[in-house]
Amino acid sequence: MTQEASMTDRIHGKPIDIAKLKQPVLSDIRGHLEKIERIVHYLSEKETAIEQESCYICDNNAREHLVDIHGFNYVTCSDCGHVYTTRRYTDDAIRRFYEDNAYWAKVTYANKETCQYRRENVARPKVEFAERYLSNTRGVWLDIGSGIGDIVSVAKERGWQAVGLELSATSVEFALEVFGVELQRQTLDEYLDSNPGIIGELSVVSMIGLLEHIVDPMAMLRRVRSALRAGGGVMIQVPNAYSLTTMIQETSPENVFRHMSPIEHIMLFTESSLTRALELAGFEIVAHWYHGLDVYELMVNQILNNSRISSSRLYRALVEAMNDLQMVIDKRELSDRIICVARVC
Q1: Residues 6 or more apart in contact with residue 322 via CB below 8 angstroms
Q2: Which CATH superfamily includes the segment(s) 2-42+101-244+279-344?
Q3: pLDDT tens per residue across span 117-173
């Protein structure tokens, strides 16, 4: 469903079979939560967290407390509404974590039971969404933080010269084995510095679930802007701070293992803070797509509070009605994900 609002298209909803997509987590929800808690403890012992004193987007240091999760304090920027943790790890610490943590990659993406479903039902719609608003000329498509390479695989199939950057060795190996996609274990800066001829020639840059992980999203957006050709653009997915999932996790912070997980997302965006970031970096947003896993979050939260729910009629009813219920949330734009397409100004 599409409607015009503020000169941008606004699209809502995407059907998903949650039992297929989240099978590794649903098979042992409590075990997954405990594993995340152990990773948080491991990082706190191995790495030194540093203070984040101002907003990543607008640099305002006025903020309000939101919630404490796994020992980290999430706050809301008083200016742009951006949500972020007041402590975080360094770039080097984050890189070490994603390069070496095989569990994180396997349980979230690099899973043979779910990868083909993810490629066709998660990655393909996103590629098609970007193509709807960006040039049909099949130039160079750069995907940063490629995970298992599903976006790169679909883009290649559709005729793009697709390149993927991914730090996780587990994910890189999986992408080659399952999709035949050779990802590069480089950061954006490393890739552009080693390929100076590509600067100003990129047609599309996709960043799916990336900006919320890094310590300088504005620098990333500006570097991407410098590498795009005239008429090029970006597709970005970020977690939505103003979502039903955020509200659920505010009330049950002890049950969090996704979305507001401080080892995964050191920040969450609002539409306002995402718009501010892209405009400051030299982009104009042309489309928003709201969809998420908020009903899944509600269901998982209930299971963690009461293990009997997983074998109940309530569980079966939620699974069967999940897409219909999620569409109601998506139309209210309370989804836990925002995807946008923006063009170079």
Answers
A1: 16, 18, 295, 296, 299
A2: Vaccinia Virus protein VP39 (3.40.50.150)
A3: 999 999 999 999 999 999 767 899 999 999 999 999 999 999 999 999 999 888 999
